[in-house]
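User: Before I run my own analysis I want an independent prediction to cross-check against. Here's the chain; please return only the structure tokens and, at the end, one sentence I can use as a sanity check.
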Amino acid sequence: MGITKYIRDAWKKPDMKLLRERMIEWRKGESIVRVDHPLRIDRARSLGYKAKQGVIVVRVRLLRGGHKRIRPNKARRSKRLHNRKNLRMNYKEIAEQRAGRKYKNMEVLNSYYIGKDGVNMFYEIILVDREAPQIKSDKELSFVTKSANTGRVFKGLTSAGKKARGHRNSKDKSPKVYPSLRANGRRGN
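Assistant: Structure tokens:
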């Protein structure tokens, strides 16, 4: 057994005092921050992270709570003042998309949860530079350089995106979510 197993076990019951102090520091900073190395190295490696040129890790801070539209205080308003926004995305997917928008030259590989407090949720996102020669020559990461994976986070091709679209199950178990709920509804099935 390597050290990774012990790191994974330590994250099952993290030191809450230390994590709380870190989150206080994270709240004071920017919402999207590039970090030198991943906080959860075991999780990052299992999701494809490698300590090489062309691979970076970004910490993203999100506001928690129901995805509400703010109430308009002037200008045009809707008749019933609907303020519910039913997003079919989870927090993780929203965090990935925000990181993808900030780092336009990179593709989102995957992400993982690192903590939450009363107001925010924190995720670390693994990003890959699709033009880096080290990535193009890497067997496991070179799939990101293909044109089908350009903007993969916005197409819902990451793990969080597939989960939100219901693509964790097979076509036999949930046939209505393939190719998408909207496309399946338009078929008239």
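Sanity check: Strands lie at 32-35, 55-63, 106-116, 120-129.
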